[in-house]
Design a protein that fits this description.
- The protein is of the alpha/beta class.
- The protein has a domain of about 70 residues: 2-Layer Sandwich (Nucleotidyltransferase, domain 5).
- Helices cover about 35% and strands about 15% of the residues.
- Strands 3-2-1-4-5 form a five-stranded mixed sheet.
- α2 packs parallel to α3.
- The radius of gyration is 33 Å and the shape is elongated.
Length: about 140
């Protein structure tokens, strides 16, 4: 839209028209405002409020490994299936909140893994994570 003035010398106006830029930015702003709530995948819950507590100690979990030859390891140290129970009971006396990570080779028969899990349960292990590889 051009305005004519009294001194119309047919000069070129060298100003930048920012109106289209502002229009595009407003459209993008509205698009982001509308789509932002849809991008969250969290379940909405109202958490109860409690007194502030101290964070638990960050203790390293104990690793129990069964290799392809059905040998049992406790933190990279080979141990017999019979001795595993006594070792775990000793560790539980030091730390009642003991966390165990069970790793088993994919070629190990389930029977061997089930025996190790039974030993862990008899030793009083209540926190067990079975470690697998992601695809």
């Amino acid at each position: 839209m051009a305005f004519s003035t009294q001194n119309d010398d047919n000069d070129v106006i060298s100003e930048i028209n920012i109106t289209p830029l502002v229009d595009v930015m407003l459209v993008l702003l509205v698009a982001f405002i509308v789509t932002a709530p849809l991008m969250t995948n969290a379940v909405k819950v109202n958490l109860p409020k409690t007194a502030t507590t101290q964070a638990p100690e960050n203790r390293r979990p104990v690793s129990v490994t069964v290799d392809a030859a059905s040998k049992v390891y406790l933190d990279r140290k080979e141990i017999g299936a019979e001795a595993l129970g006594t070792e775990l009971k000793a560790l539980r006396t030091d730390n009642p909140e003991l966390t165990l990570h069970l790793q088993a080779d994919q070629d190990v028969p389930y029977k061997s893994v089930a025996k190790v899990m039974a030993v862990i349960e008899r030793a009083g292990g209540t926190r067990l994570a079975v470690i697998t590889a992601s695809q």
